[in-house]
């Protein structure tokens, strides 16, 4: 649990500690401490505040995700005022984000989701942020080239992932078995060399596969 506010850190730690299946193994008051603690303790999830001294949450996330997958998946704590930082956090390798005004149950559920290897992305907020900061620049050449690695079906699945659909919803939309969709998702992650759905969403927008302002699934 990384947060520079001692009261917030204590409260969040208490909330997570109340869940029988969760164990808070350490805490940090700044980004540098978070990197050191996560590297040493190897947690499943690092709950990371963005605005912290010494090293901010974005740079700390980048450090952790570049070190090793075993350094822990990062769940970023954010507020609506941090929108300009959110995209940077996702690009840095965060597995998702949670608003600081979320309920205790939502926090516990978010940690469980990220620990299970899924990305925690609120489609509406995520799309708003990505469209705001990527749409103006248009597709990037490197991101467009990524799509050439995918089969037509994988491209379809990727577009629906970027729209926030679950594996079950994608299976229903494409009339496929859920197991088949999971296989496609795994191959997309491998071909894109990313660790979870959060980075797939970024790649989909950067490549132009998903176009800002459109809701038709393309």
Automatic annotation (TrEMBL):
Presence of the UniProt keyword Heme in the record: no
Domain (HTH luxR-type) ranges: 143-208
Top-level taxon of the source organism: Bacteria
Residue span(s) of domain Response regulatory: 1-115
SUPFAM superfamilies hit by this protein: C-terminal effector domain of the bipartite response regulators, CheY-like
Xref: SMART domains: HTH_LUXR, REC
Residues with the 4-aspartylphosphate modification: 49
InterPro entries per record: CheY-like_superfamily (IPR011006), NreC/VraR/RcsB-like_REC (IPR058245), Sig_transdc_resp-reg_C-effctor (IPR016032), Sig_transdc_resp-reg_receiver (IPR001789), Tscrpt_reg_LuxR_C (IPR000792), WalR-like (IPR039420)
Family matches, as Pfam families: GerE (PF00196), Response_reg (PF00072)
Protein name: Response regulator transcription factor
Organism from which the protein derives: Nocardioides bizhenqiangii
């Amino acid at each position: 649990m990384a947060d520079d506010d001692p009261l917030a850190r204590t409260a969040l730690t208490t909330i997570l500690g109340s869940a029988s299946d969760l164990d808070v193994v350490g805490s940090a008051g700044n980004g540098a401490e978070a990197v050191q603690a996560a590297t040493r303790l190897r947690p499943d999830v690092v709950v990371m505040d963005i605005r912290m001294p010494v090293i901010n949450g974005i740079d700390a996330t980048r450090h952790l995700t570049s070190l090793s997958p075993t350094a822990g998946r990062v769940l970023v704590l954010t507020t609506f005022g941090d929108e300009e930082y959110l995209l940077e956090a996702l690009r840095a390798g965060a597995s998702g984000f949670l608003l600081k005004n979320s309920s205790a149950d939502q926090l516990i559920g978010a940690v469980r989701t990220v620990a299970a290897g899924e990305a925690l992305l609120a489609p509406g907020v995520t799309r708003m942020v990505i469209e705001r900061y990527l749409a103006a620049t248009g597709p990037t050449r490197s991101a467009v080239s990524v799509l050439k690695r995918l089969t037509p079906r994988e491209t379809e699945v990727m577009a629906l992932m970027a729209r926030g659909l679950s594996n079950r919803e994608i299976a229903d939309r494409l009339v496929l078995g859920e197991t088949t969709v999971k296989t496609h998702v795994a191959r997309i992650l491998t071909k894109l060399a990313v660790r979870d759905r959060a980075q797939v969403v970024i790649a989909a927008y950067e490549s132009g596969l998903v176009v800002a302002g459109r809701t038709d699934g393309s």
